[in-house]
Amino acid sequence: MASKKTAVELIALQCSECKRKNYTTKKNRRNTQGKLELKKYCPFDRKHTLHIETKVK
Ligand SMILES: [Zn+2]
User: Quick check: 23 and 40 in contact, CB under 8 A?
Assistant: First the structure.
């Protein structure tokens, strides 16, 4: 069932404070519009910060 026409893409979540990429996740472009923003725990800041979608590479 592998298809190249998938709407799901791999993204990285970048900490808005220290700019480190702490997480990778998948996003369905059909369901999600705009940039993904999630509150995640940053091990470098040692607290929850806003993580913003960015490219994996
Ligand atoms: Zn951070």
Answer: yes
**pLDDT, position 2:** 58
In order of their start, the domains of the chain are: 9-54 (2.20.28.120)
Q: Decide if pLDDT at 39 tops 80.
A: yes
pTM summary value? 0.83
Q: For residue 8, report the distance from its CA to the centre of ligand 1, in Å.
A: 26
Q: What separation in Å is there between the alpha carbon of 2 and the centre of ligand 1?
A: 35
Distance 51 CA to ligand 1 centre (A): 8
